Amino acid sequence: MGKFLAVLLVGSAFGAGIFMYYLQVYGFYDEVVGGDVQLVSVVDDLPETISFDNLQAIDADSSPLRYRACFTTDLSLSLLSETYVGLETATPRNAPEWFDCFDAATIAAELEAGTAIPFLGGKNVEFGVDRIVAITEDGRGYVWHDLNDCGDKAYDGTIVGEECPRRETE
């Protein structure tokens, strides 16, 4: 009887582990149909839709940080740099391996080498979360969400302060 219970316990733990892995990597993500690519203008500090093609995007309701997208654009980096708000630094977040157009390590290497430039795609797309867009010299673009200063403060327990927008309650 003891062997049966041990096998049952180990089998249940193994099954639960596989189920949790599936949920984290596949289960919560949905393909985003439609949508556009926006960058924040240096003129009025508002997001504007840019010229794009071949948009592939995924998102999940479980976290505002799970959004990832890939696209192409025919706009030059010099035009984009003059027109839209650039960022000094940006670190792409990992995407699920099955979303193969988005490789965070490759994007980070291009950002570090200067062959890609990060832009602000939207401020507070959800409370404390900004949309980041990186575009390479050859017109490949990548989008992800990252915590801004207000998000960092809100989620680590620091007092948010007046400079942060009001958090909407559901």
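the 2nd protein, sequnce then structure:
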Amino acid sequence: MPKSNYSLISSSMFLHLLLLALPLVIQISPLQVQAAATVKFLPGFDGPLPFHLETGYVGVGKEEKHQLFYYFIKSESDPGNDPLILWLTGGPGCSSFNGVVYEIGPLYYKQKKYNGSLPTLGATPNSWTKVANIIFLEQPVNTGFSYATTPEAMHVIDVDACTHVYQFLLKWLVDHPEFSSNNFYLGGDSYSGIVVPRVVQLISDGIEAGNKPLVNLKGYLLGNPLTFPEEENFVIPFLVGMAIIPIELYQSMMQNCKGEYRKEFAPTNAQCTQDLNIVDELSNNINDQHVLDPLCGSETELKSPFPSKFRGSRRSIQENAISPSCYGKLVDRHELSNYWANDPRVQKALHVRKGTIDHWARCKQNGIKKYYTFTSMDSISYHRNHSAKGYRSLIYSGDHDMGVPFQSTEAWIKSLNYSIVDNWRQWIVNGQVAGYTRSYANKMTYATVKGAGHVAPEYKREECFNMFKRWISHNPL
């Protein structure tokens, strides 16, 4: 269970007060919104796109010095009535194009390894855009194709980043009034577990304040979400369950470390220190993102959901070279996006402004650290607020993720202390067990995705599509 008085609770409350102290009435002028562009063809995709793709920039922040890039894909079913989703990829600093091509969007790379030519794209039948309109937002500034107009504007704190997302949404709806009445959900994964609940709070407060345009907020969804500071403590029981460390070591740690397994906070007795060192040794060279996958160079560490400020040094990567066992794995497919998105033909097709970025990177976590300031890594109180207001939520976990293990997610959900209305059971796709699920009286549904890693749709795209389709349609998983 998460502790009720953990170390960052004061900073979390301070952040909440800052959010509430923001101007309550925000009026957006249509003159502030810039026209978007429709994309009918993409280099690497054979023929016209079989879905409606729009890209563009929206200026946010003081004097619109933060220019946030987005991809908008209309629902392929009934755009006028289907829900509108604003999707935030984690990091911070990972491009929302991850969502478009690797996770929940309509595209995928046909090839598995770069061969020197422009990577080729195909359309997937398991896109969430089959049943929903989705905006994939590049945030915070410096992410993907988003950029700052001045050097000073490149620096942002997490409070402002949340405000920028809210400002973006209001401005986008002004420019797209036909979607203002659609049911709206905010979604994301990994580090977005910190951002999404806070932005939902801003939207909810804005609705109560009468901010225009009104957002038809119905709920939110999160995958393997980073949620509270002690999350890493739940890695230890996960390692036991995965047979990475022996039960005897776990029992010794429970006795000597008293439930605190982060080196910077753990008890200083010799036995606890020794136990933690053994865990370091046994878990070294294990892929954080999916413990069954090979560890492929620096890619795994790059996507770790824990900013270095808040994590210990328990895991490391010894080699950056890619071994033969890595060929065709996610690390290679991720590299395809770097080749594709940096091609001038691609950037022209996407209507990217020339000269605004030096180099596109799928994830800029290491590069963004010097510009992004973290003030709090806790969002439990926001989940509690949203539950009290009756918003729906879907929380799901790839059950082979070591970075944000399902045990920690289940722990903070349990701490909300809501009664269970649909107890732990299997959910099925194509006659096979796709995972396990449980629903609560606060309109929260929790699900595991069997065999998936940190970003569950990357590993189980069809299963995650079915999960989303059922939930967004108010059907049981």
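Confidence is low (pLDDT under 50) at residues 1-33, 298-303, 306-322. The chain is about 30% helix and 20% strand.
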